[in-house]
Amino acid sequence: MANEEDDPIIQEIDVFLARSLLEKLYLFQYPIRPASMTYDDVTHLSAKIKPKQQKVELEMAIDTLNPNYCRSKGEQIALNVDGTCTDETSTYSSKLMDKQTFCSSQAASNVSRYAAAVYKKGELHLTPLHGILQLRPSFTYLDKADAKHREREAANEGGDSSQDEAEDDVKQITVRFSRPETEQARQRRVQSYEFLQKRQAEEHWVHLHYYGLKDSRSEHERQYLFSQGHGLAENTELIKSPSEYLMMLMPASVEEEKDKPVAPSNVLSMAQLRTLPLADQIKILMKNVKVMPFANLMSLLGSGTDSTAVLRCIQQVAMLVQGNWVVKSDVLYPKDTSSPHSGVPAEVLCRGRDFVMWKFTQDRWVVRKEVAAVTKLCPEDVKDFLEHMSVARINKGWEFMLPYDEDFVKKHPDIVQRQHMLWMGIQAKLEKVYNLLKEHLTPKKQEAQSAHPFLVSGEQRVSMAKAKVKQNYGQLEKELQKQKAELKSNDTSAKMDVSNIRIKEEPVSDEEPMDTSAYESMNNGVVNGLHAGENSTDSFNGHLPGGCVDRVAQELKAFVSSTFKKQFVLTLSELKRLFNLHLASLPPGHTLFSGISDKMLQDMVLDTGCKQILVPFPPQTAASPDELKVYALWEAGDTYDQHRQVLLEIFSKNYRVRRNVIQNQLSQECGEDLNKQEVDRVLK
Fold first, then answer.
1. SS3 for 452-472, per residue?
2. Among 90, 231, 294, 378, which has the minimal tally of Cβ within 10 Å of its Cβ?
3. Where is this region: Disordered (predicted)?
């Protein structure tokens, strides 16, 4: 309060907002003028403007009689520009540089905060500015002088003799037809410097008439700087509450968001990169490098970075191939993009590149012709895929560019297992899309031998085995003692309560248990460096411990129920694929990793209220046996249960039915006429 009394308000000024010159008022900033030039009414010879670009050109006179003006220099410039002849096209008709052109550029991109103010009779009138333009000297006359000089040189060298014209030979002309322009190429062309210059040149100049300071028209226009009406209705923008006025003075931090570093596209600055979130850092690095060992990635991210967080983020943008991380295809080929070579959409490119990555999970060598034959893509696209992750070897094919990272595989078996599950899902998709044969799925013996990451002699192999045995001896001894203690405790409990033992007898089935660990066919027992023996689970002669059976059944039932509530009809093949993806999302050591056979999965499907639909597929179908087994949710508890059951009965008699037959059957069985939307919903 004491400070306010020391600084009293001595005058209050009314502020008015003038709207007459809104979006018409510009502020020109002239350069510091030379001694031979004055900015007055006489010196402004002409003016023109391009309104869309907010570009202005002013032509101003130079005082050639000023003692500071160098006449000889002015004559030399006029001679270089126009030559000796003078006509209407001459820049300087007086054979003397007597004028100067000024060209404008925008001083600020956002001028909404600036206004022109006029103070009159205790009132302050504000008019918002539409643009602030800085005027700078234009030296286009030098370009004209260079063009004149080149024309004179060409005339001297070419000559004007008729003999030269007679000796001109007929030249062959090659006609080429341009290929259709892709969307990506069109965007690059539109953003190019030449295209922008061409568009700017296409806009026509609008010539202006200059009025001096004391001209009557200038005096009339100057009156528009004052607000025409002083009523409150005219100035509602200036009537704000204190909180609204404070928000206008200190708006939200929009500029701070703009100042955040933008992710670089092709040139990486490590200092700028480390200011981004960890997920963005990893995505940018992988997008540029394509293939990287985990140790190299950690070194690029800097000291103090949590490896667990890095592992969580890297799995979102990359896949594990031979212990190394390879960027995912959808990161390199986002949606709604296409190939620069063939124009193929991104979805097809991703499938083709996934096939190449999957081939490298089986073998260190890939043949380009085999990839092109399976994917049906152009050679340039296939070459791009291979160059992302491999190196060409003469007479051998393409070899994966990085050695097998055994250290990462040993330290992170859970990550390897999860990645293996994802690759199983990708393999199932590729089998459907490309109709892969057995020779594509199973590597040859010779290839399997070459797939080993190292070539070692027999002595080295023996020494490595001895060192590994010594290293693991202590751990193996502890595990053996632990197993013996468990066996003793089990024997003791068995003797105490024999009557409680129940032996579950399962019917003998020819079906093999569904593999949830590692297929030997994927890489001769090695998938991304994970050996099947290292990941196998001791299931006590195929039976789980008593307490685990109920937990496994509960988890399996929850998965089956939730899956069929989302998708009412599934084949056994598709259900197994979804189950593998579900396993890949589970943490290591989960109860479902104990081993689930096909029979267990099918029995659980039937126990959850589903039925097997015996669809009469044609005998010549190429579908696998798992794809011919169709299961459907019989009762979902909604209003469409009866309609769905009728529809399933229809498909149990024929695998292909017309829509009108379905609609008539539904109307007869359910006793009501369904409209098109309801029939569509039942079919969906």
1. CCCCCCHHHHHHHHHHHHHHH
2. 231
3. 146-169
